[in-house]
């Protein structure tokens, strides 16, 4: 449908749309177009296969120039979500039960409520062929999945972005988020703080031989991250936990030194 009118106010802002390792520039361009249709403008791209900027993305964006020109490229997913407070991961495949699963309508209302409360939010979209990996889903707070034909559940990333962008726009036409989400007393921590907690715990577990094999390590880390993203820790709460774990490290190292000194004396 034609309907672009440069004389009217351009709606921008909203949750960050984060594309993880997209393959085709055309898909990125169609994502930008879908975002512009429904008032989103914050596009983040993690390690695009064909590099950036991309002429095919510009062509496919159909003059969604403000989205394309404002797109930011990141080398890692952790960096792309570091400043966000709340993140959804989109997936069509069943996952474990550690995270709440929402439909697009509920997810759109929750995002609207959190944005209205001053939080920075984002939605993760995976690769064209394989979607998001388990550990990437583990970095999100909740999962959003679409009611599609179970025998043909694959969506193009631009289609998936279009669905979520539509629900975002629709959630702003009324005010269901006023009851769907209550503003927290303290703002949830940025993901960078949570990732620091992950790294500290995983380093400590590694040092103690907790991970008996690489296969078990990957599954254990996925589960650990999934569990730790559920509470919505504040920055102060994460600081308390990191201080607690640091004290364990000091106690362990102190005990090891005493044992070594005792052995020397013998």
UniProtKB/TrEMBL annotation:
tRNA/rRNA methyltransferase SpoU type domain residues are 16-166
Specify one Pfam family.
SpoU_methylase
What's the chief localization of this chain? cytoplasm
User: Which reaction equations make up its catalytic activity?
Assistant: cytidine(32) in tRNA + S-adenosyl-L-methionine = 2'-O-methylcytidine(32) in tRNA + S-adenosyl-L-homocysteine + H(+); uridine(32) in tRNA + S-adenosyl-L-methionine = 2'-O-methyluridine(32) in tRNA + S-adenosyl-L-homocysteine + H(+)
Q: GO terms for biological process?
A: methylation
Q: What class of enzyme is it?
A: transferase
GO terms assigned for molecular function: methyltransferase activity
Which InterPro entries has this protein been placed in? Alpha/beta_knot_MTases (IPR029028), RNA_MeTrfase_TrmJ/LasT (IPR004384), SpoU_MeTrfase (IPR001537), tRNA_m1G_MTases_N (IPR029026)
Kindly list the places in or outside the cell where this protein is found, as annotated in its UniProt entry.
Answer: Cytoplasm
Family of this protein: Belongs to the class IV-like SAM-binding methyltransferase superfamily. RNA methyltransferase TrmH family.
Q: Which NCBIfam families match?
A: rRNA_methyl_1
Q: Per its database record, what is this protein's job?
A: Catalyzes the formation of 2'O-methylated cytidine (Cm32) or 2'O-methylated uridine (Um32) at position 32 in tRNA.
Descriptive protein name: tRNA (cytidine/uridine-2'-O-)-methyltransferase TrmJ
Species in which this protein is naturally found: Hoeflea ulvae
């Amino acid at each position: 449908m034609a309907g672009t009118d440069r004389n009217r106010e351009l709606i921008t802002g909203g949750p960050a749309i984060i594309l993880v390792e997209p393959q085709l520039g055309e898909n990125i361009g169609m994502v930008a177009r879908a975002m512009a249709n429904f008032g989103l403008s914050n596009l983040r791209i993690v390690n695009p296969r064909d590099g950036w900027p991309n002429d095919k993305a510009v062509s496919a964006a159909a003059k969604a120039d403000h989205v394309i020109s404002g797109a930011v490229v990141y080398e890692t997913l952790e960096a792309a979500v570091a400043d966000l407070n709340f993140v959804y991961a989109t997936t069509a495949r069943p996952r474990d039960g550690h995270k709440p699963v929402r439909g697009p309508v509920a997810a759109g209302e929750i995002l609207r409520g959190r944005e209205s409360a001053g939080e920075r939010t984002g939605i993760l979209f995976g690769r064209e062929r394989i979607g998001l990996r388990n550990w990437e889903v583990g970095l999100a707070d909740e999962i959003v999945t679409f009611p599609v034909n179970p025998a043909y559940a694959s969506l193009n990333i631009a289609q998936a972005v279009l669905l979520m962008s539509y629900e975002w726009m629709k959630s702003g036409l009324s005010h269901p988020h006023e009851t769907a989400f209550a503003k927290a007393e303290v703002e949830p921590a940025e993901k960078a703080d949570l990732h620091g907690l992950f790294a500290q715990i995983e380093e400590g577990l590694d040092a103690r031989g907790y991970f008996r094999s690489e296969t078990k390590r990957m599954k254990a880390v996925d589960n650990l991250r999934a569990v730790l993203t559920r509470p919505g820790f504040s920055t102060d709460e994460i600081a308390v936990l990191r201080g607690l774990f640091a004290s364990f490290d000091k106690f362990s190292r102190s005990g090891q030194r005493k044992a070594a000194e005792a052995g020397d004396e013998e």
